[in-house]
Amino acid sequence: MSAFLKLSKRDLKYDLPASVVVFLVALPLCLGIAMASGAPLFAGLLTGIIGGIVVAAISGSQLSVSGPAAGLTVIILGAIEKLGAYETFLLAVVLAGFMQLILGIVRAGMIGNYFPSSVIIGMLAAIGITIILKQIPHAVGYDSSFFGEESFSQLNHENTFTALSKAASSINYGAAIICLISLFILIAWPKVKKLSFIPAPLLVVIVGIVLGQVFNETVLSLDEKHLVVIPVVQSFGEFMGLFTLPDFTQIVNSDVWLIAFTIAVIASLETLLSIEAVDKIDPQKRVSPTNRELIAQGIGNMSSGLLGGLPMTSVIVRSSANVNSGGRTRQSAMLHGLWMLLAVIVIPRVINLIPLSSLAAILLLTGYKLAKAKLFKDMWLKGRDQFIPFMVTILAIIFTDLLMGVGIGLIVAMFFILRNNMSNAFKYSVENTDNGSRITITLSEEVSFLNKAAIQKALYNLPKKTTEVVIDGSYSRFIDKDVIEVINDFRQNATSKGIKTELTDIVNMKNIPDIRKLTNVSKPKKVKHKV
Q1: What backbone torsions phi and psi does residue 38 show, to the nearest 5 degrees?
Q2: Is the dihedral angle over the CA atoms 81, 83, 85, 89 positive or is it negative?
Q3: Is the pLDDT of residue 473 over 90?
Q4: Distances (CA, A) of 333 to 61, 194, 283
Q5: Could you tell me which residues come within 8 angstroms of residue 314 by beta carbon, excluding any fewer than 6 positions away?
Q6: Are 27 and 336 in contact (CB under 8 A)?
């Protein structure tokens, strides 16, 4: 609570309405992920509450929102089945959190700095497209998969496109009408300046509840599967009974440790990716401390496991909803956790009247903002080396899942990075003289083993009538030993062909072996010398 009081009161007018939007988005996602994971529904809500109140209070990210992640559902489902008891699984969650805490302390968060920008932007666009594709079925009342599903292959043995196909022939017109009206409100309401202080998503939910009640006993009526469903408790004792403690007697179980390690690694990667992505869409372009985020996630997962919750990560869907709703600081994430707690305790019956199609409308607009056409145009203008990894990442995520898609995009991006690195190894110039051609090769600042092939090709494919070659290392801070060997071999070969070789600022470079020792050349008095 003290952390909350230290936060900005000035930004509360932005963070308060944003927190309501994040709460409305997070609520069904937490429930859907818990259901898909084979865990109690309350476990999903508890994870969202801890992700908001605990993690946001510790995290240095101003806009990130944490909670249960759809990418972990398959792992959680398999882990609970393998361990045989939910209490044993909770122990794995606690251990995973402890591992994340250690990762943060040893500064493993630096990994997040090595994701190429094209891949991160592609991930954001892919999440936007995935949200749209996955929410269309919920928008028309086809709720066969859990709310928040992100992977192409769904747990109900459908995939993204088969679900869309079946949704087209299974429309609930009551849900569809509610979604269309909700979309209209979301687009038009902010333009009504005098009433814009009321968050449009909150109005959408209120209108959705009213329409849902009006549609009862008509052909447009909604079933329970079309509505949010959270546990309803009648007393404080029932509420306390929702919590589950981990089974510490299984601490020596090797399967528990293996599952904990798996969760820690995957949750950390998803968190770092999400943090990097949120920083990209932050209007103020703030940089989140990744090591501190891992520490916050570690403490959050330990708390979640101790109380009966699921593993959590920083989640891009909720975080992007926070950004798009005008959130300024971590107050919005903390408040969303508080609203979730109050919803469970105070108004669970009201929450259970919210149509999923209303919430689908909010997510559809969020997805559209993440994948605008302008983004594709901007990436195209940046060139092939940016656009191709961007598009590959998008397609890979849509047809696989987040981590697999990012991995594929990263491989493609690395190809272009290496290719650019190799092609920028040196500058090549030709000067014609009376006796022939004088070639000058100016090495770049960093010359690694990756540049070896390009330099070797340039040296051994000299123009005819070349009489002199100058290799200039005066701009280089580092020259790899492999490149030094290439230069040495060329010098010896050039001498036999009558080509004069001049080395500039090569012999006195630091961090490389002295070329005199490789070539048996006596120490010159000057840096610039001729062989």
Answers
A1: 75, 25
A2: negative
A3: no
A4: 10, 26, 17
A5: 59, 61, 64, 65, 66, 270, 271, 274, 275, 278, 293, 297
A6: no
The amino acid present at 193, given as its one-letter code, is: K
Gap between the Cα atoms of 246 and 221, Å rounded: 42
Phi and psi of 379, rounded to 5°? -70, -35
Asked whether 388 and 239 are in contact (CB, 8 A), the reply is no
CB atoms within 10 A of CB 315: 30
Q: Is 341 helix (H, G, I), strand (E, B) or coil?
A: helix
Residue 137, Cβ density class (10 Å: 0-12 exposed, 13-18 middle, ≥19 buried): buried
Tokens for 220, please give them.
Answer: 């447009």
Q: Which pairs count as long-range contacts for 12-15, CB under 8 Å and 24+ apart, including other chains? A: 12/331, 14/326, 14/327, 14/328, 14/332, 15/327, 15/328, 15/329, 15/331, 15/332, 15/335
Maximum Cα interatomic distance, the chain, rounded to a whole number of Å: 100
CB count within 10 Å of CB 225 equals: 12
**Pair of tokens at residue 187:** 């687009």
The DSSP letter of residue 309 is: -
How many residues would you count in the chain? 531
**Token pair listed for 388:** 């191709």
Write the single-letter amino acid at 435: N
Token readout for 101 is 């805490």
* Cβ neighbours for 249, distance < 8 A, ≥ 6 positions apart: none
Q: Please say if the pLDDT value at position 530 is more than 80.
A: no
Q: What is the DSSP string of 356-406?
A: HHHHHHHHHHHHHHHT-HHHHHHHHHT-HHHHHHHHHHHHHHHHS-HHHHH
Strand partners, 441: 428, 471
Sequence-ordered list of residues with C-beta below 8 angstroms from that of 254, at least 6 positions apart, any chain:
none
- Residue spans of beta strands (DSSP E) within 96-147: none
Q: Which of 460, 467, 456 is nearest to 432 (CA)?
A: 467
Tell me the pTM: 0.84
Token readout for 251 is: 């601490």
Please count the CA atoms within 13 angstroms of the CA of 272 that sit on its side-chain side. 25
The CA–CA distances, whole Å, from 275 to 15, 224, 264, 451 equal: 19, 36, 16, 33
Separation CA 328–CA 22 (nearest Å): 13
Alpha-carbon span 69 to 315, nearest angstrom: 6
Residue 442 φ/ψ, nearest 5 degrees: -100, 115
For the ranges 232-246, 277-291, 445-459, the lowest mean pLDDT is seen at 445-459
158 dihedral zone (left: phi>0; alpha: psi -120 to 50; beta):
beta
Query: 411-440: per-residue pLDDT in tens?
Result: 999 999 888 776 677 888 888 877 788 889
Residue 347's φ and ψ, nearest 5 degrees, are -130, 45
Query: Is 120:337 a contact under the CB 8 Å cutoff?
Result: no
